[in-house]
Amino acid sequence: MPQPTSFRSNIASLPSRNRRALLASLLLVSGTMLAFSQEPGAAQPQPVVLDRVVAVVNDQAILATDLEEEIKLAVLDPGEAGLGILSPQRALEQLIGRALIQQQIRQEDERAADPSQEKVNARLQEIRTELPACVRQHCASDAGWKAFLEAHGLTEQRVENYLRYRLQILGFIEMRFRQGIQIPPAEVERYYHETLIPQYAPGEKQPPLAAVAQRIEEILLQRQVNALFDDWLKNLRQQGDIEVLDPALETPPPAGTGGEPSK
Question: pTM above the 0.90 mark?
Answer without folding.
Answer: no
